[in-house]
Amino acid sequence: MDNKKAAELAEKELKKEEEDKQIKLIKEVIKQTLNKLEVKKEKKSKLEKEIKILKQDIDNIRAGRLDLIAERQEKDDEAKKTSIIEVVKEVHHHHYHDRWYEPYRVIIKEPYWTTYTYCGNAITDTVGDYTVYSAPDWTTSINCSIAKDAFAGTYKLDSGDCITLT
Questions:
Q1: Could you give the number of structural domains in the chain?
Q2: 62: in domain
């Protein structure tokens, strides 16, 4: 009987060790999954903030409010990094009594290769690989009135989708 009890006890210990091993494995899987989930949440939060900034840029241009983009970029480094443009209020000796005509320097910051294709129209104009440093034509003064008036149009994205903004 003593041998039988010892065998049963040894068998129970082996089962317990195997069960503990499985529990440890599951706990490690859960821990790693939670860690990965946290990383993804942080990335999602960052992406959501970047999307919000880009949408604000579009909304501000639509409203002709280059001043709001410039102000946001002055206050928030993340907004300055995220936006594809940099907007800086130009200082002139004469004074503008209407904010619509105050000049802003709009600088496209990112290098790009772009093809302008107007949706529903066969006109295509190809522009080479430019950066703000090699293409000063893409750095110019714009006032809020022009930004507001030039906003509307149909844009063909790199994905092939067409988006009409009014």
A1: 1
A2: yes
- In the numeric block, the tokens 């300055």 are attached to 80
Amino acid at 146: I
* DSSP label at residue 90: P
Does the residue 125 lie in any domain?
no
Helix (H) or strand (E) holding 114: strand 112-117
pTM of the model as a whole: 0.69
pLDDT in tens, 28-44: 999 999 999 999 999 99
Residue 65 covered by a domain: yes
Range of the domain at 68: 39-111+140-147
Give the Cβ contact number of residue 99 at 10 Å: 13
Give the rounded distance of the alpha carbon of 78 from its chain centre: 10
**Residues contacting residue 151 through CB under 8 Å, at least 6 positions apart:** 61, 62, 64, 165
